[in-house]
Amino acid sequence: MRCPYCGFTESKVIDSRPTEENNSIRRRRECLRCKKRFTTYEKIEAISIVVIKKDQSRQQYDRNKILKGVMTACEKRPVSLAQMEKVADDIESELYQSMDREIESAKIGEKVMEKLKELDEVAYVRFASVYKQFDDIHTFMDELKGLIDEK
């Protein structure tokens, strides 16, 4: 494991414990050169999932893309990083549990919107406006009216 501070490749494990979801192990490490501490996560390497994009091209599934989209939607909102990571974790769990090895990006986007709607309505509308590619203010207003009607 390479130290993120000095790049040295040797470190010692100070503490190991499972994460709350029990899907990975959190390890606190200390660099043997600079003595700074850092955290790593060890996960089981799962069967890969392929995402089918709108243009029918295929890409390897990347959890970080979901997390980045969620973080962008939640920017300047009262949503903690832990809550955002939970959204990404929950979606990832659903994808792996579905046993589908290929999934359309649209289905992933729908899952993100579903989770954001429960978490923060403003973040949901932000994500939906980009994901659904609102053409004009009327499309935007229709989405807001639908959200209000649900309440």
Report what the structure shows:
Helices cover 45% and strands 21% of the residues. The chain has helices at residues 63-73, 81-97, 105-119, 121-131, 137-150; strands at 11-18, 24-31, 37-43, 50-52, 58-60, 102-104. Helix 1 packs antiparallel against helix 2 and helix 2 (81-97) packs across helix 3. The protein is elongated, with a radius of gyration of 19 Å. The chain starts with 10 loop residues before the first strand and ends with a helix. The model has no long low-confidence stretch (mean pLDDT 89). A zinc finger (unnamed) spans 3-34. GO terms for molecular function: ATP binding; DNA binding; zinc ion binding. It comes from Candidatus Ornithomonoglobus intestinigallinarum.
Poorly predicted tracts of residues: none
Termini separation (Å)?
Answer: 49 Å
Mean pLDDT: 89
Largest sheet: 3 strands, antiparallel
Specify the overall morphology.
Answer: elongated
Number of strands: 6
Kindly name the structural category: alpha+beta
Strand content: 15-25%
Counted by DSSP, the helix tally is 5
Order of helices and strands: EEEEEHHEHHH
